[in-house]
Amino acid sequence: MKFRVVLERDPETGDYSAVCPELPGCASAGATEEEARQNIREAIELYLAPSNIELPENARMVEVTIG
């Protein structure tokens, strides 16, 4: 899967921020562009990782494949 990432360099510190617009709240940073890219990749993986969800007794979990 591919995601768009916005990289922005802070002119005061020289650090980079990285934001994934398609995943609200998914952001990271790094001292270099390479580090910011690596960190946002990890943030996206964690964002998309399944987590335990408690379901009501009358509900069930199904999976949907995209792409």
Summed up, the domain count is: 1
- Stretches where pLDDT is under 50 for at least 5 consecutive residues are none
Strand content: 15-25%
What distance lies between the first and last C-alpha atoms, to the nearest angstrom? 9 Å
Radius of gyration: 16 Å
Question: Could you give a quick summary of the protein structure above?
Answer:
With 67 residues, this protein is an alpha+beta fold.
Give an overview in words.
This protein has a 3-stranded antiparallel β-sheet with strand order 1-2-3, with helices on one face. The chain has one helix at 33-48, and strands spanning 6-9, 16-19, 27-30. The protein has 1 helix and 3 strands, in the order βββα. By secondary structure, it is α+β, with helices and mostly antiparallel strands.
